[in-house]
Amino acid sequence: MIRLENVTKRYSSDVVALDDVSFDVPKGEFVFLVGPSGSGKSTLLRLINRQERPEEGSVWIAGRNIVDMPSNGIPQLRRNIGNVFQDYKLLLNKTVFENIAFALEVIGKPQHVISQQVPAVIDLVGLSGKEDRFPHQLSGGEQQRVSIARAFVNRPLILVADEPTGNLDPGTGEGIMRLLDRINGTGTTVVMATHDRRIVDAMRRRVVQLDRGVIVRDQERGVYQ
Amino acid sequence: MFRETGESIRRNPTLSVASVITAAVSLLIFGLTLIIQHGFDNLLSQWEGGVEMIVYVNSGAGEEQRLVIEDALGQQQGVTIEAWSYCDVACSLADADRLFAGDPLTRAQLTELNIPTQYKVVPLDATQVEILRGLRDRYLELPNVYSVQLAEEQLDLISKLQGFVSTYTTGLWIALMIAASLLIWNTIRTAMFARRREIEVMKLVGATDWFIRLPFMLEGLLQGVAGGAVASVAMWFINGRWTAGVETFPANSGMTSLVVVDGYEWRVGLIVVLFGALIGTIGSGTAASKFLDV
Question: What's the CA gap between B163 and A133, in Å, rounded?
């Protein structure tokens, strides 16, 4: 589903975010990206959804090299990739329902599809009854659930999550992980960058460790270390 | 899309109003330039086609009496006169419609029975003023000639005035149009910055660039159209006041045809609105494309 071949990404001549990185993620896998701050985790996620382009190497998503993809092809790529962020990136003037529906509206889904899919995903993330609340009326965990619902409502092939539990207490973080695990169970490939040792050790999924832009460990059913 | 556009305008009302006012002022000057030009064209309409002399014939003159004048003109054809044409009663009434557009009282006194008809004369060399003056003096002595008018008596002054007004008003509206376009450009940039979070989310969930751009372009278009509409209303008001003012001028003021009352002002109003739409779209379109990566 995701393949990086000899990818190098530089932000300037002396800032190398990723250095000759190669790895594969098969369809339906759950992968943790771990490593210290500045190791290249977020850059790797941004390469997957084509927010960044590498200077060298290729990035393959669902069998297509997206490095030289023309700009008019990027929206279609992103419709197949859900994004979850540490700061949720919710629209503060929209309700829970509207935030999630927004992701379908902007890609031109008809109203009857929206009114069918949004309640279903709200139910999936456990926010039934809170559809009309605004983000400031929700807890951090609930806001992250809205963010996950928005990322998943279009049933993407891949879900990338950048520190989704970073702002949450351990108990709430576990709830979010159960939700991501459940989404992964539907066949969606999940790539998640995290610093949360407890979660990684508890989930026992594939762990790719980065250090200064280089993969230093790639372990099946791994732990944080 | 309309909801997003409305929301954007509501978020930034002062800048939107400033853009509309600037667009309105520049479009008003643009519209007035066209109106003034048309007024000058009316003023000079009787001299179109190289006509440098008009021989006015008494209204009662019959065909035989006119043949005397035509014989005199014919003798000069190819010598000092290149061509001449007869402007009959209907043609002279049409000329009067334009010449006295701002003086309906005088125009009302001119009828088929009393309006002088005209011979419009194109000389071989318009710069030979002395020859033209000589011809005028000769034609004035012919029977049934009411008067003879030379273009030099009003053409030079009006042409100079037209050139002066045209140059400065054109410069002014171009400068203001650029200012309006830049202000709309800046308004859209500010609106995009205010909505950068939404734009980021839209891009991440797969919205196309056009989907993101269109509400902003529509916002600029609306500002331009609103400016155009305000300018059109102001222009019609000013034109109406000027026309009413000209009616009070004396008939020999030479200004009675410097008015636009033939429906041209409606066409200019439409042009002004369309031009507003154009500058709004250009300003917002370039900003929306340039600042999409906010």
Answer: 66
